Amino acid sequence: MTARPRSGPRRGWLLRLVIAFAFAQGAVSMARPAVSYRALALGADETAVGVIAGVYALFPLFVAVPLGRRTDHGRCAPLLPLGVLLISGGCALSGLVSTLPAMAAWSGVMGLGHLCFVIGAQSLVARQSAPHEQDRNFGHFTIGASLGQLIGPIAAGALISGEGGALGRTSALALLVSAGVCAVALTSLWRIEHRRTTDARPRTDGKVPVRTILGTRGVPAGILISMAVLSATDILTAYLPVVGEHRSIAPATVGLLLSLRAAATIACRLVMTPLLRLLGRRALLTTSCLLAGLLCAGVALPVSVPVLAVMLAVLGFCLGVGQPLSMTTVVRAAPDGARSTALALRLTGNRLGQVAAPAAAGLIAGAVGVAAPFVLLGVGLVGAAGLGLRGEGRTGPSPTGPEPADEEGTQTEPAPADEAVSDRSSRRSAPGGCPRGRHADRSPRSGG
């Protein structure tokens, strides 16, 4: 009987990747509000803050697909330390320069480093995870991002103070500290890529055209849902400080509010498997995006801080669904030998949203008010809920979602269609979608 593919010895590589991602994302989450505060200290208005936030995502637009191509035909691991070095350099130099154009440029370098790290890390998870492990492993991987988003804003809020005209100095200090935090990620990246999975990567005679990848059912929906969710998270991080300034909310309180949102996202991803089992993938995506859209628009209301805290907590829980499920959607729908490129296209969409959304937010905030961008994001998330209703492409999920996890924590979802073709002779589906003999071919593995 054929044994299930293992993703690695006890998935230690995944734990170390989560730790490294937590430090890298923590540095970025600490630096993004610090950049906004430092820009305000240097005389920027709401529109300029939006432009600087957009430049963070501008550089990656031009390199995401080439990096994905390279990763499809090479190793993933080298992108990780490169990303860490670029993030650290961008953070440090954003704190040292004293002009808005220079801040925007180094913010772009920070965004380029984040892109390198994320492409390498997501490709690593896709390559070293068996099909039935992908939802769980991508969910655990994104916990690293949520941990960083939880700790980063708290640290930024603790360091940044506007009292006595010290906003410029304290925001610069926060940026320098974030550079050091990111550098710690290098300690978790040793031997993180398995040689056997590198050697066993798909071999293709040529590149799969981008048009073919984007024309594959499931890929565009995954990209657009991810764009909407990440744009909401990004605008919350970049513009909640501006909202706080207008509503006289202290930077430390803004940091706590952002971290509360991130903590709720972590909670969501820890219970992702039972949520999928209870609601199914399509219903979970649709419901979470719809509720997130309504709550995001509600941030525009002049509510009290406690009410805002409750809204952000529920919003964070809902936003926790979209990213890991959109990763799995894109990976499963993409053609063989082009999964890293498909993930890179997803990240390109994310960065396009991060360029367009802050720019549009800056224009709207300058013309209408600082709360108006959240209404725009709410509309985008409601649109993403509509995309969630269309389903997923080639994966053919069962209406009830993934199969339950067994006692070792291993999910037993049906394999994607492209992998099921070669495996059809050895796996026959019993009623209910469970492969015959799944209890007989278990191998011990660590819990999820």
Can you offer a commentary on this structure?
The structure is a single chain. The protein is mainly alpha-helical. It has 17 helices and no strands. It has helices spanning 12-41, 46-55, 60-72, 79-96, 100-128, 134-159, 167-183, 195-199, 210-214, 219-246, 251-270, 272-279, 281-298, 305-333, 339-367, 372-388, 417-423. Helix 2 packs antiparallel against helix 15 (339-367). The chain is globular.
Summarize the structure.
The protein has 448 residues and is mainly alpha-helical. The chain has helices at 12-41, 46-55, 60-72, 79-96, 100-128, 134-159, 167-183, 195-199, 210-214, 219-246, 251-270, 272-279, 281-298, 305-333, 339-367, 372-388, 417-423. 69% of the residues lie in helices and 0% in strands.
- Provide the gyration radius in Å: 21 Å
The largest sheet, given as strand count, sense and whether it forms a barrel, is:
none
pLDDT average, as an integer? 75
Using DSSP, what is the number of strands? 0
Q: pLDDT below 50 for ≥5 consecutive residues: which ranges?
A: 1-9, 395-448
Strand-pairing-aware structural class:
mainly alpha
Compute the number of helices.
17
Helix and strand string, N-terminal first?
HHHHHHHHHHHHHHHHH
N-C termini distance = 24 Å
Beta strand %:
under 5%
* Principal-axis shape: globular
- Please bin the fraction of helical residues: 55-70%
